[in-house]
Write a structure and sequence with these properties.
The protein folds into three domains: 29 residues; 104 residues, Periplasmic binding protein-like II (D-Maltodextrin-Binding Protein, domain 2, 3-Layer(aba) Sandwich), CATH 3.40.190; 95 residues, 3-Layer(aba) Sandwich (D-Maltodextrin-Binding Protein, domain 2), CATH 3.40.190. The longest helix is centred in the first third of the chain and has 28 residues. The chain is of the alpha/beta class and 262 residues long. The chain starts with a strand and ends in a 15-residue tail after the last helix. Strands 4-3-5-14-6 form a five-stranded mixed beta sheet, covered by helices on one side. Strands 11-8-12-7-13 form a five-stranded mixed beta sheet. The chain has a two-stranded antiparallel sheet with strand order 1-2. The chain has seven helices and 14 strands. β1 and β2 form a beta hairpin.
C-alpha cells in the first residue's frame, strides 16, 4: 500500500498515509501512557504536592484525608490551599483539585471519588411556621437562604422531576458567600437552603433539618479529583488520587451512582 507520494520537489501523504499517521500517533501515545502508568506505579511518591479544594468540603473531608495520606507517604510534602471557589489548576500550578458538580474544563482529567447530590431542606420550626412548598413555584413565596456567587439580589434554582424542568428565582432576608454560615442560618429556622448531601446529611438524619420538595432533583454534585494532564502523571499525584478513591469508595456503588449516604 502506498503511503507517500514523492516527486523530485515535494512529498505528500496519500489518504491511506494520513489514516495510518493519525491512528499510529494515537497508538504510540497510548503505549507511552501505559508505560508511564506502569513506571509510576513502581516509583516512590515524593516531593511537593499542591492540592486545591473549596473551604467546606476541604475542611471537613480533604484536610483529614491529607493527614492520613501524609502518614502513609512521608516523603510527600502536601500544600493544601482552600478557596471559596475552585482555582484554575494550570494557571496556579496546582497538581490536584477537588471539584463538586459539573466540570467546565474538558482538558482536565477527572476521577470520580464520591457520589453526591444537592438537596433542599429547612428546619422544622421554619416549615411549621411557613408551611412546606408543594411545587417549585411555591419557593418564590418562601424565605430562601441564598449562597451568593455574584452581586445578584436573588438565587436561581434549577429543579427537575422526570421530563418536567423548572427554574425558580428565590430570595430571602439572609444571603452569604459562605456555605457554613448559610447552613447555620437554616438550622436556626431562617428559611430554605440548597446544600450538598455531604454537608446536610447529618442534620437530616437527626431531624434538625427536614427535606423540601424531595420528589424534585437538583443539578448533579458528584465529587471529582481533577488534574491537568493524562501523560507524565507523577507518582505523588497518582498516589494521592488513588488514596482519595479508596478513602471515599463507600460513597460510590458498583455502578458508580448508588452510594451509602453521607
Amino acid at each position: 500500500m502506498r503511503l507517500l507520494n514523492r516527486t523530485t520537489r515535494r512529498m505528500s501523504l496519500t489518504h491511506e498515509g494520513e489514516v495510518y499517521l493519525t491512528n499510529g500517533a494515537r497508538i504510540l501515545a497510548d503505549i507511552e501512557e501505559l508505560e508511564l502508568t506502569v513506571a509510576s506505579s513502581r516509583a516512590i511518591p515524593k516531593g511537593l504536592l499542591r492540592v486545591n479544594a473549596t473551604f467546606g468540603f476541604g475542611r471537613k473531608h480533604i484536610a483529614p484525608a491529607v493527614s492520613d495520606f501524609a502518614k502513609q507517604y512521608p516523603e510527600v510534602e502536601v500544600q493544601l490551599q482552600m478557596t471559596e471557589r475552585p482555582m484554575n489548576l494550570a494557571d496556579m500550578a496546582f497538581d490536584v483539585g477537588v471539584r463538586i458538580g459539573e466540570l467546565p474544563d474538558a482538558r482536565m482529567t477527572a476521577r470520580k471519588i464520591a457520589s453526591n447530590r444537592r438537596v433542599l431542606c429547612a428546619a422544622p420550626v421554619y416549615l411549621g411556621k411557613a408551611g412546606a412548598p408543594s411545587r417549585p413555584h411555591d419557593l418564590q413565596g418562601h424565605d430562601c437562604i441564598v449562597i451568593r456567587e455574584n452581586d445578584a439580589a436573588y438565587g436561581i434554582w434549577h429543579l427537575s422531576s422526570g421530563h418536567k424542568k423548572e427554574t425558580v428565582k428565590v430570595r430571602g432576608a439572609l444571603s452569604t458567600n459562605d456555605g457554613e454560615a448559610a447552613l447555620g442560618w437554616a438550622l436556626d429556622g431562617h428559611g430554605i437552603i440548597m446544600r450538598s448531601e455531604w454537608d446536610a446529611a447529618p442534620y437530616l438524619r437527626s431531624g434538625r433539618l427536614s427535606p423540601v420538595l424531595a420528589d424534585w432533583s437538583l443539578p448533579g454534585a458528584d465529587i471529582f479529583a481533577v488534574y491537568p494532564e493524562r501523560l507524565n502523571l507523577s507518582a505523588k499525584v497518582s498516589a494521592f488520587v488513588n488514596f482519595l478513591v479508596e478513602r471515599f469508595k463507600r460513597y460510590v456503588g458498583p455502578n458508580g451512582d448508588a452510594h451509602d449516604g453521607w
